[in-house]
Write a structure and sequence with these properties.
Number of helices: 32
Structural class: alpha/beta
Largest sheet: 7 strands, mixed
Radius of gyration: 38 Å
Helix content: 40-55%
Number of strands: 27
Length: 890
């Protein structure tokens, strides 16, 4: 307990897994928390300060299962192992405690075991460093070795983290940035905490990173900003602490250029349900619906493509070209997908071996992946890069496959060594043994033979001694005193006691009827038999170490193979998706076009297919002359679906994928903004309407003329005229100031009058039909405006009591009869600023005050003089102030 408490004092924030024999034991509060979280028995052991010591434990062999549950429950764990041989401890005294120490800290972003990870999702540690309004981001996934950095503005932070979906975030911000940064981090679902290690500054940060990669300077990898370098150095320091020196081998850092990506803020990602649905589930999201990959690495890469669409035309075209090749040569990629199904998670198996946490099974995974990659490369080279020998000439490939194929080639030596070394069925732990094949190593085979066939070998030696001495009664026996020995009858002993036999047989014991001898060969054989199992295990571990070293020496090549296999998997999956779901190749260019013919919502269409129903496709044309659509129609008619589907088609197109449409031509979009659906943020004291206004403000302040904006029911969370006013002003701002492509859905039919004054605003409606008193949703978008919202009919469909529906219909008829004409068209936004209004008209008193304000020198005023001026001006403007109050009251 003294040892436990001493170690625990250094890891107060972690559960301490304290190794005792075949169990990890937990004590005191750790035991109480773990027992409750794991639903295991809480016992006690000994006493402390007169009270029983709470205790619980988990078996070492199955510890990963329990660790997974604890990590998911929000705990972090310190693994404490024995660090010396118990025999050494006994030399210090019979009751000496075996030395122990923490060998690893297990946190959400520092796990590498398959049992603790989701195969298709990356597991990033995000390190953030703020400095003078900038944020440096370093994202490290130790389970795959992926490293990326980015320099971004604080306003972009929540959107970038939403795309990254880290499992753990470290941050260090100066006081001036901390409040806003922590607000933006608040709703990112990850373990968060300030940096436990202060990020190094300037040259020290660069030295730290360069030292890890063993390069003279970071310029070898690119031009990194100071905050990027500090963030990456902080991440490396954190890994050093948690891994206790057993650092992972990470890929070279790659910079993510913000200008090369389609920007999506956190609210837009949530509204469009790209990675998860609004309820937080992956099932039903865009990624879940479209993912046809068959390898874990491919699934992670596909998720990266969709969560980070591009603004780089060349990169988009390269992806499109590769998918086109996969579609054109279905026979080849059918074979490729079949081989890919044999590929295990190469990246994570390699990473575990690099960190010393691997197993024979991980070596087997590398062998399978490399072998499958070699077969894929051979077939792809012959089909894509060589002349076709078939009668039907294949079209030449659009993409340059040479770099990808070459990454899969040249690993024959490693494949051959692993194939010869490893058995077919491999254990998960080296302690299980038996993973090296017979015939790979003569010394191991000899040890195994001794361990399993010792008696047979002794019998063979006995037969040889009989033949050499011509004594048929010679026997080799064994007892606990002498061990293995040669026994001959007493009458034959004289010959063994005299040369030349005495030179081989050394006398050790004489009895009445027999004499016993030892031989050097028998003693050596006996010793070998006695320790054969231990020697076999030791030799097997030695060979395992050599195989791991062989793989570690080719770690960079293994990363490249994993990258190539993931790319081929994604490309073939996208081609299969496009063929099966009738997706088409979109045209992407630098224009401001936005023409989608027969567009469909991929997620809704997939759900309808399962029910045997068809999706109603719709066109959308946001050409510069009519770049802003005003969409009206009843609830449940499909307005939100139409808005979302056009945003999702844009995301798919700029990710390099085919899209669910008959045709699509999209001029590059720099940002997509989405405000669809109602939600509150009560944790931060925000009502539904406040959340709506905050998100709308972000759109109006950040969107550009290259952006795509989709807005649904702006202003509905407040009073009718307040909401109408906000919606009206928002439409004008989108049209006249931002001049972006956009879809604006509303129930404020008064807004349709704006189509008369805003040239690029066009009215569209989602059509419905009334048939014998029933409302029929057609889900068709057409030009024109809906003249009513059919709210009462929808309420009836929802199940409101008949009396309530009837009363609502009567009230509606009364209100419609009394309703005034729609508001007169407001002046254009550009004119509003110069329009004459009571607030803008300056009286003589007001002019005098303004002149005085222009002339005063604030730094030269005393507090008393400033206060006197305020009183003077208040008196001068008393009439205007009272007039404003009267107007407000009216």
């Amino acid at each position: 307990m003294a040892q436990f408490l001493a170690i625990k004092s250094d890891y107060a924030d972690h559960l301490l897994f304290y190794r005792m024999g075949d169990f990890y034991e937990l004590f005191f509060d750790d035991a109480k928390q773990a027992a409750q979280a794991l639903d295991i028995a809480l016992t006690s052991r000994g006493t402390h300060e007169g009270e029983p010591i709470p205790m619980c434990g988990v078996p070492v062999r199955t510890a990963e299962t329990y660790l997974a549950r604890l990590i998911r429950a929000g705990f972090t764990v310190a693994i404490c192992e024995q660090t010396e041989d118990p025999a050494e401890a006994k030399k210090r005294g019979a009751k000496s405690v075996v030395a122990r120490g923490v060998v690893r800290l297990v946190t959400p972003a520092t796990i590498s075991e398959d049992e603790l990870l989701e195969g298709g999702r990356a597991n990033y540690l995000a390190a953030l460093v703020g400095q003078k309004g900038e944020v440096g981001l370093a994202a490290v996934d130790i389970s795959t070795g992926d490293v990326m950095t980015r320099d971004l503005a604080l306003s972009e932070l929540d959107g970038e983290l939403a795309a990254l979906a880290p499992s753990e975030i470290l941050y260090a911000f100066p006081d001036a940035m901390r409040d806003e940064a922590e607000t933006r981090l608040a709703h990112i679902d990850a373990r968060k905490g300030p940096a436990t290690i202060a990020p190094p500054k300037g040259p020290k940060a660069a030295e730290r990173v360069a030292g890890y990669y063993e390069v003279a300077a970071l310029a070898a990898f690119g031009s990194f900003s100071d905050v990027e370098t500090r963030a990456l150095a902080m991440a490396l320091d954190y890994l050093e602490v948690t891994q206790k020196g057993q650092m992972p081998k990470l890929a070279s850092p790659r910079q993510i250029a913000g200008g090369g990506l389609l920007k999506l803020d956190a609210a837009t990602r949530a509204n469009l349900e790209i990675e998860t649905t609004l309820s937080g589930a992956r099932r039903g999201s865009l990624i879940d619906t479209l993912d046809e990959t068959v390898t874990p690495g491919g699934a992670r890469l596909f998720a990266s493509w969709l969560s980070r669409p591009l603004c780089d035309l060349d990169a988009i075209n390269r992806r499109q070209a590769a998918i086109a090749d996969a579609q054109a040569d279905d026979e080849l990629f059918l074979f490729v997908r079949g081989k890919l199904r044999e590929v295990p998670d190469l990246d994570r198996a390699r990473a575990r071996l690099d960190m010393g946490r691997g197993s024979p099974a991980d070596l087997g995974k590398l062998k399978l992946a490399l072998a499958a990659g070699a077969e894929i490369a051979e077939r792809m080279r012959s089909r894509l890069l060589a002349e076709s020998e078939t009668k039907t000439k294949l079209a030449p490939p659009e993409a340059n496959w040479e770099p990808v194929i070459s990454l899969l080639e040249g690993h024959g030596a490693i494949i051959d060594t692993l194939t010869r070394a490893l058995v077919a069925e491999l254990p998960l732990k080296t302690s299980d043994g038996g993973f090296i094949q017979k015939g790979f190593d003569p010394a191991l085979d000899s040890h195994r033979e001794l361990a399993s066939e010792g008696k047979t070998i002794i019998t063979k030696l006995e037969a040889r001694y009989r033949a050499e001495t011509k004594l048929a009664n010679l026997k080799i026996k064994h007892n606990n005193v002498l061990g293995y020995h040669v026994e001959v009858p007493a009458r034959a002993a004289d010959a063994f006691l005299a040369p030349p036999l005495s030179e081989t047989f050394q006398h050790c014991q004489t009895m009445a009827s027999a004499v016993r001898f030892r031989t050097a060969e028998l003693s050596e054989l006996a010793s070998r038999i006695g320790s054969a199992s231990d020697q076999a295990h030791a030799r097997e571990l030695e060979l395992y170490g050599k195989l791991v070293a062989l793989v570690q020496g080719a770690s960079a090549e293994m990363m490249a193979v994993a990258k190539a296999l993931a790319f081929i998997d994604v490309v073939s999956a996208c081609a299969r998706l496009a063929t099966r779901n009738q997706h088409t190749r979109p045209k992407i260019d630098q224009s401001f076009a936005f023409q989608i013919a027969g567009g469909r919502h991929p997620v809704v269409e997939s759900a309808l297919k399962k029910e045997g129903a068809a999706f109603i496709a719709n066109d959308c044309d946001l050409a510069p002359a009519y770049r802003l659509w005003l969409l009206t129609g009843p609830n449940m008619a499909g307005k939100s679906t139409f808005l979302r589907q056009n945003a999702l088609i844009t995301i798919m197109a700029q990710a390099g994928l085919w899209v669910p449409a008959k045709a699509a031509h999209i001029g590059l979009v720099d940002q997509i903004f989405s405000r669809v659906g109602a939600s509150d943020d009560l944790a931060r004291g925000r009502s539904t309407f406040m959340v709506e206004m905050v998100e709308t403000a972000a759109i109006l302040n950040q969107a550009s003329d290259r952006s795509l904006v989709i807005l649904d029911e702006i202003g509905r969370g407040t009073a009718t005229f307040d909401g109408l006013s906000i919606a009206w002003a928002t439409v004008e701002h989108l049209h006249n100031v931002i001049r972006c492509r956009g879809l604006f859905a509303t129930h404020y039919h008064e807004l349709t009058t704006l189509t008369e004054t805003l040239a690029a605003l066009t009215p569209h409606q989602v059509r419905v039909r009334e048939w014998k008193g029933e409302l029929v949703f057609l889900h068709e978008v057409s030009s024109g405006s809906a003249d009513r919202s059919y709210g009462v009919q929808v309420a009836r469909l929802a199940g409101l009591p008949a009396k309530v529906v009837a009363r609502a219909r009567g009230i509606l008829q009364e209100l419609e009869a009394k309703r005034d004409a729609t508001p007169t068209a407001m002046p254009l936004f550009a004119e509003v600023e110069t329009a004459t209004s009571p607030a803008a008209t300056e009286s003589g008193a007001m002019t005098e005050v303004i002149d005085a304000l222009r002339e005063i020198q604030p730094d030269q005023l005393s507090a008393k003089a400033a206060l006197d001026l305020l009183y003077e001006w208040q008196a001068m403007l008393a009439d205007e102030i009272e007039g404003d109050r009267d107007q407000a009251a009216r």
